[in-house]
Amino acid sequence: MMTEIDLADIKRITELIKTRYNYDFTNYALSSFKRRVSRILELNKLSVDRLIQKLENPEFLEYFLNEITVNVTEMFRDPSFWRALREKILPQIMVNHKKIRIWHAGCSSGEEVISMSIMLREMEIEEDVQIIATDLDTNILKRAKEGRLPLKNMELNERNYVRYQGTGKLSDYYTPQKDIAIMDPTLLDNVSFRQHDLVRGEVFNKFDLVLCRNVMIYFNQHLQNEVLNKLHESLFKYGYLAIGSKESLIWCDIAGKFLVVNNEEKVYRKIKE
Q: Which residue has the higher pLDDT, 149 or 140?
């Protein structure tokens, strides 16, 4: 059973992190944040007071961020989404662009980035695409850069790839080594990994396609609105935004600045600055 914590404890924790490290969790979805903090307390057999003491240590903060922001991810998650990208979205972008810029916002451990790279290679356009992949957590970024995935997850990833209808076998792209799948390192040749905070970070570039999937479900509505405004600013006019299957633009400030391209796959096109 997880340790119960109250709102006063959550406020103490978030204020310390914001003041000392400039990470702002005050607008994260409360139930999700409380659940993950409770899990950290339970796993480490800590009281709230002891947790706050340990958060003064930057090394422990990295562990804390990893536990708070962890996402369950997989390659070619929602295969129909990837088919829509391959068959509709990317060909449309290529009509007007010789070079394509893609941002994976909240890239986690890199499964989505590797999926994109495999798709681009099979479409024979990888040399025409530059990918920026960002995440808040530097530890998870390091894992993503290494291109090393748990071998136990590859069976699920392979099933997704088959449903996506890739042109080969997923095993063509990695080498098993003990319990790790070492991905073909050339898949990441056109990928630049950067630490970036979606909550407090600045708009840093313009893109033709932004993927921010299953990230905002951890934010409250106010914070989702701020992030969506930032993603809108990060797109060229007529660029595309892809969000998670449980996420929506309908209610937010910039809803009228996007056209729904594929409601089922949650793909939108920017039509107004």
A: 149
User: Mean pLDDT score of the chain, rounded to an integer?
Assistant: 92
Reported as a single tens digit per residue, the pLDDT across 81-133 is 999 999 999 999 999 888 999 999 999 999 999 999 999 999 999 999 999 99
Does residue 1 belong to any structural domain of this protein?
no
* pTM above threshold 0.85: no
Q: Which long-range contacts link 127-130 to residues 24+ away (Cβ below 8 Å)?
A: 127/190, 128/94, 128/98, 128/99, 128/100, 129/99, 129/100, 129/101, 129/102, 129/190, 130/99, 130/100, 130/101, 130/102, 130/190, 130/192
Based on the domain organization, do 43 and 143 belong to the same domain?
A: no
Number of CB atoms found within 10 A of residue 171's CB: 12
Residue 129: HSE in the Cβ half-sphere, 13 Å Cα cutoff:
28
Closest CA to 100 of 236, 6, 194, 196: 236
Which domain covers residue 139, as residue numbers? 79-270
Q: Are residues 158 and 38 in the same domain?
A: no
Which of the 8 DSSP states describes residue 88?
I
What does DSSP say about strands 129-135 and 100-105: parallel, antiparallel, or unpaired? parallel
If asked whether residues 19 and 108 sit together in one domain, one would say no
Q: What is the mean pLDDT of residues 241-265?
A: 92
**Residue 16: DSSP 8-state:** H
Burial class (CB in 10 A: 0-12, 13-18, 19+), 243: buried
Closest CA to 183 of 132, 139, 149: 149
Tokens of 192: 């630049």
CATH number, domain of 95, equals 3.40.50.150
Query: Tens of pLDDT along 55-70?
Result: 999 889 888 887 886 6
CA distance 237 to 249: 17
